[in-house]
């Protein structure tokens, strides 16, 4: 009997001693974030005594897995907003945004129109034009730097993912070796705590799911199901250049085989999650579209102003020149890595006809037909823009082909094979490449190159007006400040029947250029006379008389004329920017609307992500509370347990003392 009592007391002391140690460990790790509180579980033997105790982690695996998911979501939105909020602020700040510079440029242009002969007013226009191009350049270069930062973050994050994956594989191995008990690898629960902490750190970077194996190891699969850590090994996460965009890094899983070969698996951007996914989503859905739309806006402002200035006359009685230089905006289309041919393609703005210039990238594909190419707008991830039309052109190489539907020109060299593809990014860097082409204020062409007047002996009640100034082609002799002899210079009314008129158009040298018979519409006279693509057009308003004539002449010394300047100022209010490569080619936005849409899209996404971030943080807080209610250490509870186990330990010691007394009594009774 005393032996049984001694054995019971011994087992009790050892069990309660373990409980005291566990309680002490809980108390010591109160402030250890990765620690999961432990409890001793007592097991009764089949004979009624205490057989053994087991130390168990008090963890709810469901809430633990949910917490990792919530951490990934919060990290995703935090990373996204960290970059997007900064961009949103810069876009809306009057001191840094492009819209304020564009507004200032057009305001000074209007001031110059109020005093077209003033060189000082023209100089201010040039200064604002220079400031506007500088603002475009600086903002686009800032966005380029942001792309570099995202690429650096991706590279550093993949290094961190690899380090964590290696740690998880090592912990899996130790946990399997421990086989549910303490060993040289350390306490099994401590190993499990370390593994959970590594998984939480991984959750901050990417979103994943885990599967616990019978051996105790866990496998880690990314959000899309691709494996990162297997039971018996791991994959490497690497940041690599995408095909073919050399500036856009993507996340790839890489597995090295025994023969030294490697298998690579691309991870779609929208299936990465965590902070890495947040950075990639910001780059592809906010940063790059913003830069491309900024480039589109810069091209349309510069080309529209160039086209209009070339239609006017400057202070030196010369036809206007280009205000902005777009030659550096030409870009090389990047060939895909699996191309088999030697073809090369450069892409430039179709100057003077860039109204359909899109913001999106373009994919150019060589078809199986001779000299045929297909061009289609695509998104950052390579998918075709919704609603976009595929443009087909035929051009032998070497050669150049204009694509009016996209406002670009392609220069082809080399020999492309059927199926070869190229990525063109005409808008992406355009804003950083535009510059001022003129430095003399006299070169701003505020005047029209022609003026019109009615014949002095006219008897009718009509007057001639300039209807349009078109692209200069073959009517002007700028060397002698006059019209060419072949240019239309006089219109004569030769007959009238009721309200129908006969007219004849004469060149400057008196040659008849065409006649109009029985017209009731006196608008677009040169077009009605069948003059092809006239440099200018005129209307006759009113009721002329037979014999009346109307004269057109070069606007020599028309310094006080601001007609072309007004046309340039009016560009600010015209719809000159195409909304999307997926919509019809005709532009539907003004310059201000284009920039406003850019700002609105970024601001809307930032606002939406703030709401989603706040929601994700609220859910994460609830999950943390649920997790801590089970796994967290409560000092008051541990203090109570300490007293309980101390008293139980003392009682077990009393059992041993009692067994000793009984044993001594038995011995004395036998003497």
UniProtKB/TrEMBL annotation:
Record keywords: Bacterial flagellum, Cell projection, Cilium, Flagellum, Secreted
Residue span, Flagellar hook-associated protein FlgK helical domain: 85-324
Any single GO BP term: bacterial-type flagellum assembly
Native species: Idiomarina ramblicola
GO cellular component entries: bacterial-type flagellum hook; extracellular region
Record has Transcription regulation as a keyword: no
Sequence ranges assigned to domain Flagellar basal-body/hook protein C-terminal in this UniProt record: 629-668
InterPro entries found in the cross-reference section: Flg_bb/hook_C_dom, FlgK, FlgK_helical
Protein name stated in the entry: Flagellar hook-associated protein 1
Family: Belongs to the flagella basal body rod proteins family.
GO molecular function per UniProt: structural molecule activity
Subcellular location: Bacterial flagellum; Secreted
PANTHER family tied to this protein: FLAGELLAR HOOK-ASSOCIATED PROTEIN 1
